[in-house]
Amino acid sequence: MKSLLKVIGYLWVTLLCFEVQAQKDTLLVSEIMPLQKEIMSRLTGKKPIKDSIYIGQRASPRERELTVEFLSQQLTEIGWQLDNHHYKTTNGNPFLDLILSPASGVNISAVLPATRSSDEYVIFGSHYDSERDCPGAIDNATGVTLSLAVASQLAQLKERNVNFIIVLFDQEEDGEVGSKAYAKMLQKSKKNVYSVHTIDMMGWDEDNNRGFEIELPSLDLERFYKSEAEKFNIPLYTTKVSSSDHKSFIDRGFNTVGISEEYVKGDTTPHLHRPTDTYETVNFDFLASSTQFIFHIFKTLAQ
Amino acid sequence: MNIIQKLKGCNPYDLLLILSFMLILIKGLEYVFIGILYPLVISAILLSPFVYCYFKKRCTISKTIKYWSLLILCYGVVRILLNTIIYIDSRGIPSEAYYQFTLKYSIISILYVVIGVTLFRKRKHIFLNLSQ
Q1: Which of A41, A60, A61, B17 has the greatest number of C-beta atoms within 10 Å?
Q2: Is residue B1 part of a domain?
Q3: Where does the chain cross the membrane (chain B) (predicted)?
Q4: Cα of A294 to nearest chain B Cα, Å
Q5: Has residue A59 got a pLDDT over 60?
Q6: Which chain B residue shows the shortest CA-CA distance from A91?
């Protein structure tokens, strides 16, 4: 009789824990989604990014400047220390270099220090620029809003044993120009970087399986992501996609992973690099659930 | 003061020649500051016939100015052609490059052509001044 009561008691406590966790998750989603919708609408020209200025793309120097201003303000408001990285570099083509001025841009960067002394850094981020004539909602305002929502949640953690750096890269669409410049600078800085996580396109999930792909992950990160995804019952696939910002860090020897919707599996936006890549095509439920998962990953790394 | 007086006394075509050197060198130096050397190396190679003529007076400076003016002219024409191609079809052109084809770019390109043509036409005047 006693042991039966014990089992019932154990089951009740377990159920209670699940219930509390579910309530927490719902709370997190209800907090995340309005923030992501708001930022997304500003970045994609649904709402003004500044005063009465609307941007239909984030490709020209002026549009990118406005985006930097807006996102820098967002990061400051959620308590991160802004440390933007300005760079000038080659146009990626010797012929163009002889004709044009060097390429220049700004990687929006901010630091969230550990709550106890640590020299270790976890870096995450996504690119904020878009192709010309493309609002770039899924590619890659989704990555930006995911990163910002995670940043906001991390700032609320009472205990963090590592320092976090968020970087919103410029000029990914021009051949990962921004992330290449940042990775070069990071290598020179000799910071103790534990891992780098870049997010590119997280807004399409037609089969509603919440699945996503990790691109060219290091063995450590692949194992970690897969074991955590199993706990959340999220399908996770490893791919060899190299055409995004994670490649810049892999090339410099950092422990890196790229994160994306199911691009190789084919459950991906059909509007890529088109004028139809708009706010309306974003699956905000998928974006919020992915945000929750990525936040869980960083929370675990912070412990 | 001396330099200003010297410049005042200069033939305008000499000044134009100096301006053309400056434009090319500045382009090279712009890249040196960000750690990329080859634009300056190419500029130096293109300018080397002048240095050669300065030290070895055997060759005629007129021929060198002719070569230089044609080079500047070609550079301006290539810039204009590139602008035209991008105006017709900009697919595959990185945004960073695309947004540099501005009115300022067009004016500078035309300036290169004008300098090239002027230097070519007035090369003998420059030659006379330099040999004095």
Answers
A1: B17
A2: no
A3: 12-29, 35-55, 67-86, 98-120
A4: 31
A5: yes
A6: B97
